Description:
Layout: H1 13-28, E1 36-41, H2 47-53, E2 60-64
Parallel strand pairs: 1-2
Amino acid sequence: MRLVGIEQVQFPPAIARRLVERTLTEATAGRLKLIIGAAFPLERAADAPAAIESRTVVGKTLLLPE
């Protein structure tokens, strides 16, 4: 099996609801860690997709306002 992205994972509604509830519970308790891999100022917005596509960024990629 090859899984390319999370968008390819589909759960039945009952399981999805349970996973969302658990995720929100963990987030509320502060037990989830957000990983920001890169942050780009808006004037370098064109660099963000390139970094994502080249897989040089681990975590979320942000665009920052001025």
